[in-house]
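This entry is set out below.
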Amino acid sequence: MIFKLTAKNCQVSTHTREYINQRLKKIIQNLPDIEEDLIVFRLTIRKNIDKYHPPKTHPLVHKNYAKIKPALAYFEGSMAFRLDKRQLYVHFKGRTIDECIDRGFHLIFKELEKYKDLHLSSESKYPDHSSIRARFA
């Protein structure tokens, strides 16, 4: 696996790097058929310039300061995960670096599940399409 970590205007602690390595090992375990040398993983973390990440709520909901304050995001980042010719990409924001990385890996694992369902028939919920057609007919 080729792993590239880029931190712009911030520093990543050793504890956070150990956490990243644990998550990468989990990704490799989830993909047993793919050779480890073909995987390229890029992680970029930087300080958020505007320090604001708008919450996704209904526009007419009344907001007070206590509800707006959790929307502050001091860091943002992106993860790009390339498997053969397919690339999985996620973008995330958060208050701390650890929160950002945790959110990013959560999104990557979601994308990885979609990838496995589409490209690895043995991992799919419905490996035999004839059973789907028979059930919904």
Summary: The two ends are 44 Å apart (CA to CA). Residues 97-119 form the longest helix (23 residues).
